[in-house]
Amino acid sequence: MVNFYRGRRAATPRLPDDSGKRSPLRALLFLLALLILLPGCRAARDADQTGAGLDRAIQNKGSDTLVNLALAWAEAYREIEPTISIAVTGGGSGTGIASLLNGTVDLANSSRDISENEKATAASLGIDIREYVVAIDALAVIVHLDNPVEELTLAQIADIYAGRITNWREVGGWDAPIILLSRETNSGTHVYFLEEVLRGGDRQNKDIFAPQTLLMPSSVGITSELRRNRNAIGYEGLGYVDLSHEKVVRVAATAAGPYVPPSVATAASGEYPIARELYIYTAGEPTGEIARYLEWVLSPVGQAIVADLGFVPIVNGAFNEFEQ
Amino acid sequence: MNLNSDSARATLPDRAEQAARLIRATKWDEFIIENAVRLSGMSAILIIGLIFFFLLREGAPTFLDIPLRQLGGSRWYPIEGLWGLAPLLYGSILVTLGATVIAVPLGLTTAVYLGEFAPAWQRELFKPLIELLAGIPSIVLGFLGWVTLAPLVMRLGAPTGLTAFTGSLLLAYMALPTIISITEDALYAVPREYRDGALALGATQWQMVWRVALPAARSGIVIAIMLGIGRAIGETMAVMMVTGNAANIPELGLGAFFQPVRTMTATIAAEMGEVAQGSMHYHVLFGVGIVLFLITFAINSLATKLVGAGGRRRGGGML
């Protein structure tokens, strides 16, 4: 804070003398020079970028579930096409699609399919959205390593997150309140979990997350809380699960079983019930570098990276076109 | 003699010309400076006006299109069109209240110690250090709180480390430099004669501080507290990291502090990135901004009113 009171030394009024007379003018000239020179700097930089044609960045933004995969793709692609750089940022599926509609990115990553609202916005803006399925992800339900609960049914998970089951005792665990962890509402994982697990895929079902659900701004927020809180439960893309720090629960579609652990194999075969497609969206038919990049992502080389990161590769890598 | 008067006659017009030039230059300088000052002053007002107008225009649909009963609801879940502001208000008030209860006594006692009891070398050492605290970016404090404070709070028996209390602790820490620094300045501004008079009448050091210095510095102290609270209620990043962001209304009581809450600022920060411009969600987030603005405005007006009353009674305010 500023010291209001201490600087009470009386300021001696200074008369202008010859030496100081021109200084305001000089300052003005300096400012003028800056005004003229500064835009010049910028123009020169722009010329460097476009004129020499060295780097053109493809902007890629969206799902935090996809961000590691997108980064791995971008790095591998850099070795094949050194002149193309791909800028990858996370922020959530909703953020990515909103940026695509606002025209600030070329590719939007999403862990859920585009919503009716977003379709309507795109239509009103005259944007023809194209959808590409780039990988399949299994959502793992995770608990603390010490938690004795080994398996849950989809219905039990739904009851837990809707706040109908609030104590671990009710699902065969110890007598302690359940701490619910989830991503923020702008996360595609959140929306997928809401629609497919909490509501069981039933459109008439209007259940929502219990109000005491902790909404974490990032995936790291969920895993770090889960590591230090023995009563917490969370969900996360399989690619993010670290088995040495958190325990994965086996999940059954019905109470009759079977209880299946999530893995690339069980998600690909459809045995594991919580698996979803991951998407990249573009505004209009992709052309040039962007089209070539997408083609590479869906090629066997790009899909090998998908498997490396714990996601499920697309068996049939055809471009799925999205009907308006 | 003759020679002398000649030279005097020769220099006199020179001097006059020099003086005139000086005045001209001064006038020109003053013209620029005066107008620059006027322009910056007016631009500040203009910018504030524009911000206020923008906030109102973008936030107005919230209060026009959504029934008030729904806005007062207890459920905030924007992707399903549930716009209950109550949990957000509750969260902000709870966290700020906790921060105030922690920071005000701590801040005032520190300031009184530094201003009245500490030897000069301690004051010279601690005052700049405390002011340095204010410069730590809130995201850094938030990260510290998330890594170190949250596990401590959980050890106290809270169901999770991410609670309103964790946020209050962090915010108290952030408000402390403001409260200490301004209170100490206000104490320093109390005229020496007041203290000397009290001591001469036989008051002890503590009686002098409690009965004379603190009441005389009252207006400055009120400002210190209000600025501290203002900082606390408007803080975003740190709070978002440590309060758990659950749009929940815990039962009233001391236990409420040990439950996760979601503040208005964290809601705006977490959800602004996702919304499509012009959607209802977008307008409601601005509506939340209006509510936040009204609260800070009320706090500031209250401060002005309190200070005004104190100043008149004493025939001249301290600030």
* CATH architecture descriptor text of the largest domain in chain A: 3-Layer(aba) Sandwich
Termini separation of chain A? 58 Å
* Number of E strands of chain A: 11
Task: State the CATH architecture of the domain at 88-277 in chain B.
Answer: Orthogonal Bundle
* Number of helices in the DSSP assignment of chain A: 10
Amount of helix of chain B: over 70%
CATH-level-4 superfamily name of the domain at 88-277 in chain B = MetI-like
Strand residues, percent of chain A: 15-25%
Taken in chain order, the helices and strands of chain B follow as: HHEEHHHHHHHHHH
Radius of gyration of chain B: 28 Å
Cα radius of gyration of chain A in angstroms: 27 Å
Number of strands of chain B: 2
Silhouette of chain B: globular
Order of strands, main sheet of chain B, comes to: 1-2
Characterization of this structure:
The complex is a heterodimer of chains A (324) and B (319). Chain A has 324 residues and is α/β, with parallel strands linked by helices. Chain A folds into 2 domains: 111 residues, 3-Layer(aba) Sandwich (D-Maltodextrin-Binding Protein, domain 2); 139 residues, 3-Layer(aba) Sandwich (D-Maltodextrin-Binding Protein, domain 2), CATH 3.40.190.10. Chain A contains 10 helices and 11 strands. In chain A, the strands form 2 sheets. In chain A, strands 1, 2, 3, 4, 6, 7, 8, 9 and 11 form a 9-stranded mixed beta sheet that branches. The termini of chain A are far apart. The N terminus and C terminus of chain A are likely disordered. Chain B has a domain of 190 residues: MetI-like (MetI-like fold), CATH 1.10.3720.10. Chain B contains 12 helices and 2 strands; from the N terminus they run H-H-E-E-H-H-H-H-H-H-H-H-H-H. Chain B has a two-stranded antiparallel sheet with strand order 1-2. Chain B is globular. The C terminus of chain B is likely disordered. Chains A and B meet through helix 3, helix 4, strand 7 and helix 7 of A and helix 1, helix 5 and helix 6 of B.
